[in-house]
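We were asked to recover a plausible sequence for a given structure. The inputs and outputs are reproduced exactly as logged, with field labels preserved.

PROBLEM: sequence recovery
POSITIONS: 466
GIVEN STRUCTURE:
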């Protein structure tokens, strides 16, 4: 049997776990932390997940950016920096994968849900908040939903008890309207009108949840999804002025201001945790939903009141932008921080958004079973420095225009809507060429064929969008 067929046979025997893994690495060593017992906190910790909207690799201070993000930097300095954290190249797919532990393509979500689309996450989907809720957690979403644009498919229908924010993928930061004028700001899935910048409203609500709303007899899962630095960029002078001498381009200056404003909001939430004596019992995650967008020119959105922006985010040194399957579109800054439990380290093993569900679910009293449909893996041992076997993981992405897979050091991008449609193939050795400068497809046709077989098997499990 050929090596290609052998790998395919083993791959199918183990089970395809796309967007993340083909086989679950088995820890070869366990620490107290990886056993999840004897913590200096309650048995079930709290979870706070911060998600930035369109923040690129070089848009955080700890990656050497000119942008000031002291609170995010502190999380990285005190926690586990996730050096190869993979998301999807646009927002709705990343959010679907994070909350379901499965690739978004399984639900036919291949890009942003926009306009007046009726597409939504299927109502019978097992979600992280629903799972945690039935295990005693109080669950809250504050900020961007983007997995259904009507209250009928808002976050309360998917396991969140308490909700506040907006349904669509982008908003006017002050008017809180979608780009075509639709209402979208809600509380508990009912439209409301508020005054203030979205970043401040999200921070205020999150702090209020921690200090006043939460049930102090239960652990909580607090999902905070910001509206920035996604356009339109609307920031007060106090955020912009600090970059007047530092950044020449006015568009980039606005982008930087929105990042620093968001970082300040994160700091307010972290301070609320500290004041409520919750820091030691709370696992905090920070990530961006996709790589940064290069620029934006309006075509009637927001009645052309904002933009154009000639320079927004920065993914250097990675190749590519939001919407693309190069590393710059799918590899983002991410951090896990839990003082007293997680030690400071840089986690270099690849991790995916679909790993968040099984990792957090590992702290629940109920175990996930094989019928749950979860395709991610529990990476707690990676976060705590545990030892793993050398089983290769498989990462899979699909958009409306391309598919990609990473197996070990090898990454293949197939530029077509389906694997069986002819398109350009690009093959990269990410260990030797992490910046994807050399397409090895012409020199390694057997490797291309092998990875196309993996892509074929992955894509067969996808649902086609209606």
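RECOVERED SEQUENCE:
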């Amino acid at each position: 049997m050929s090596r290609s067929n052998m790998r395919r046979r083993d791959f199918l025997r183990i089970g395809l776990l796309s967007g993340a893994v083909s086989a679950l690495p088995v820890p070869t060593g366990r620490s107290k932390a990886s056993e999840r017992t004897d913590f200096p906190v309650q048995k079930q910790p709290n979870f706070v997940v911060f998600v930035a909207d369109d923040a690129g690799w070089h848009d955080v201070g700890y990656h050497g950016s000119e942008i000031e993000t002291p609170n995010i930097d502190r999380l990285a300095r005190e926690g586990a920096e996730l050096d190869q954290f993979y998301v999807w190249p646009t927002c709705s797919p990343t959010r679907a994968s994070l909350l379901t532990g499965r690739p978004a393509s399984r639900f036919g979500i291949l890009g942003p849900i926009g306009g007046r689309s009726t597409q939504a996450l299927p109502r019978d989907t097992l979600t992280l908040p629903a799972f945690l809720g039935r295990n005693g957690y109080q669950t809250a979403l504050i900020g961007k939903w983007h997995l259904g644009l009507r209250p009928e498919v808002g976050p309360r229908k998917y396991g969140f008890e308490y909700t506040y924010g907006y349904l669509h993928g982008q908003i006017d930061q002050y008017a809180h309207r979608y780009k075509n004028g639709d209402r979208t700001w809600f509380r508990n899935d009912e439209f409301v009108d508020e005054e203030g910048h979205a970043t401040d409203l999200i921070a205020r609500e999150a702090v209020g949840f921690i200090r006043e709303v939460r049930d102090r007899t239960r652990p909580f899962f607090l999902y905070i999804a910001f509206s920035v630095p996604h356009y339109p960029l609307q920031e007060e002078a106090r955020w912009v002025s600090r970059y007047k001498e530092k950044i020449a381009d006015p568009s980039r200056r606005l982008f930087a201001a929105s990042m620093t404003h968001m970082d300040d909001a994160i700091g307010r939430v972290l301070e609320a945790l500290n004041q409520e004596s919750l820091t030691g019992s709370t696992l905090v995650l920070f990530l961006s939903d996709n790589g940064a967008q290069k620029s934006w020119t309006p075509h009637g959105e927001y009645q052309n009141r904002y933009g154009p922006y000639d320079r927004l985010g920065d993914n250097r040194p990675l190749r590519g932008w939001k919407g693309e399957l190069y590393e710059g579109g799918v590899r983002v800054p991410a951090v896990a921080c839990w003082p007293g439990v997680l030690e400071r380290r840089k986690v270099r093993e690849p991790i995916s958004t679909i790993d968040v569900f099984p990792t957090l679910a590992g702290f629940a009293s109920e175990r996930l079973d094989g019928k749950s449909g979860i395709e991610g893996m529990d990476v707690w041992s990676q976060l705590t420095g545990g030892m793993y076997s050398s089983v290769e993981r498989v990462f899979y992405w699909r958009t409306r225009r391309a598919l990609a897979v990473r197996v070990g050091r090898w990454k293949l991008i197939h530029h077509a809507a389906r694997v069986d449609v002819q398109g350009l193939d690009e093959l990269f050795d990410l260990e030797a060429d992490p910046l994807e400068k050399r397409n090895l497809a012409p020199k390694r046709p057997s490797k291309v064929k092998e990875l196309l077989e993996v892509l074929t098997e992955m894509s067969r499990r996808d649902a086609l969008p209606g």
